[in-house]
Amino acid sequence: MKTNVAVFFGGRSVEHEISVISAIQAINAFDENKYNIIPVYISKQGKWYTGENLLDLKNYRDLNKLVSEATEVFMKPEYGDYNLYKATTGMFSKRNPVVAELHVAIPVLHGTNGEDGIFEGLLETIGIPFAGCNTLSSANGMDKITMKMILREEGIPVVDYVWFTDHQWNKDKDSIVEKIEQKLGYPVIVKPANLGSSVGIGTAADRNELIERINNAEKFSQRIIVEHMIEQLKEINCSVLGDADDHQSSVCEEPVKSGKFLSYEDKYMGGTKTNQGMQASEKRIPADLTPDMSEKIRHMAGETFRVLSCHGVSRIDVMVDEKDNSVYVNEINTIPGSLSFYLWEATGISFSQLMDRLVALALKRKRETDRKTFTYDQNIFALGGGTKGAKGAKGGVKK
Ligand SMILES: Nc1ncnc2c1ncn2[C@@H]1O[C@H](COP(=O)(O)OP(=O)(O)O)[C@@H](O)[C@H]1O
Ligand SMILES: [Mg+2]
Fold first, then answer.
1. What are residue 161's DSSP bridge partners?
2. First and final CA of the chain: distance in angstroms?
3. Does residue 145 line the site of ligand 1, with CB under 6 A?
4. Engineered SS bond to 141: which of 34, 225, 274, 334, CB 3.0-4.6 Å?
C-alpha cells in the first residue's frame, strides 16, 4: 500500500512564494511508487486547497484563478481524524466528503504561521505523524531571542545582543539606546525577532541610524533584537537531518551576498525559471574552509539541532568573524528553503532519499510519542472523591 503524504505549503507568511517553490520541488522528489502525494496549499488568507493545478508553478501567477480552480479543504481539530475534507457539502448531503485519508503530513511552510510552531500545534492536536520540528522546537527556533537564550545557556556561541518589545521601545527609547551603546557599541544589526528572509533587518553605525532601524523593525514585530554586528563576516550554512538522539550534519555551504548582508534578493531572486528558490541562490558547496573549521561548524550545527530538540531537516546558519576566526550560530531554519536538498545531494543523499527519511522520521516519532503514558484516561469524577460537597467549585481548583 502506498503512503498518503500531504505536503502543506504557502501560508500566511512573507515567505509564501518561497514555500510554494520549496514544496513543488519536494513533491517532485517523492518516489511515486511509494507515495501518493496530496498537495495542500494554504492561501495568503489562510484557506486550504488541494488539486492537480497546484503542482504547476505557472498557475501561481494568478492566485484568484488558482484557488477558484482548486478544491477547498479542511481538517478537523480532532485527535485521530486524519481525513482531509472537502469544505463544501454535496447538494443532497449534509456531510463534507472525504477528499483524502492522510497518513503523514509534511509542512513545507516557511516563516510565520508555519515554521514557528503554530501549524505544528494543529498537527499535534490531530495526532497525525508529521515531519519536522514539533511545536516547542519550532517556536524556540523561530524566535531569534528565545533561540539565542537557549543556545547561550547551553554553551553554544552566539553574538552579544539586547532585546526588547515595541511597547518598551515606545515608552523609553533613551534607556534602550543607552543599553545598546553600553553593551554593544556600533555597528549593530537590528532585527524583528520572528520573521525571516531578511525582512525588516537593517544595520546601524550611529545613534540616528539605530533609532531609524528600530522604528522600522518595530513595524514588523512586537519583539526586537539588536546584535553586535560582525564586520568581517563569512557566512556558512550547514544542514542537519534526523532527530535529537540520532542526526547527521551535511557538508557546509557558503552563500554569496551582493551587499553588506544577505538580502531577500540574494536568497531567492537569483534563479532562472527552472532553477528557483533557495537552491538557486549563489553559493559555494562545499564552502572554502579548513577541515578543522568545517568539522567545528558541522559539530556546532549538530549541537544546535540537539539542544533545541529538532527533528527532520533543519539548516543552521553560522557566522565566522574573519578577524579572529571565531564562530557563532546566527539562526536555525527549521523548515529550510528547498529543504536544503542541495546540501544533502552534496553529502550523498538524493532528494528522493531525503523525502523517504522525513516520512520515516515522522512515523518513528509517532511511535515514540504513543509509547508515553498519559494519565487523563481515568475519570477522576468517577472515583467519587471531591464531588460530594462540590469542594472544588467553592474552594477553587488546584492544579
Ligand atoms: N550579527 C550579525 N553581524 C553581521 N551580519 C549579520 C548579523 N546577523 C545577521 N547578519 C546578516 O544579515 C542576514 C540576515 O540575518 P538573519 O538573522 O539570518 O535573518 P533572516 O532570518 O531574515 O535570514 C544574514 O544572512 C547576514 O548576512
Ligand atoms: Mg538568515
1. 227
2. 45
3. no
4. 334
108 alpha carbon to ligand 1 midpoint, in Å?
22
Q: Which CATH number fits domain 231-368: 3.20.20.140, 3.30.470.20, 3.40.50.2000, 2.60.40.10?
A: 3.30.470.20
45 DSSP 8-state letter: T
Flag the least confident range among 158-172, 258-272, 285-299. 258-272
CATH architecture of 3-130: 3-Layer(aba) Sandwich (3.40)
Among the atoms of ligand 1, which is closest to the Cα of residue 317?
18
At 9-40, the pLDDT tens digits run 999 998 999 999 999 999 999 999 999 999 99
Ligand 1 pocket: which of 258, 262, 304 to mutate (most atoms <8 Å of CB)? 262
Domain made up of 160-228: CATH architecture? 2-Layer Sandwich (3.30)
**Residue pLDDT, tens place only, 258-290:** 565 556 566 555 554 446 666 667 889 999 999
In this structure, the residue with its CA closest to atom 1 of ligand 1 is 229
Atom of ligand 1 nearest to the CA of 231: 4
pTM given for the model: 0.91
Q: Which one of 201, 230, 256, 316 would you pick to mutate in the ligand 1 pocket, going by the greatest count of ligand atoms within 8 A of its CB?
A: 201
Q: Ligand 2 center to residue 199 CA distance, Å?
A: 10
Looking at the DSSP bridge assignments, the partners of residue 314 are 240
Domain-wise residue ranges, the chain: 3-130, 160-228, 231-368
For 190, the enclosing helix (H) or strand (E) is strand 188-192
User: What DSSP line would sit under 286-354, residue for residue?
Assistant: S-S--HHHHHHHHHHHHHHHHHTT-EEEEEEEEEEETTTTEEEEEEEESS-GGGGHHHHHHHT--HHHH
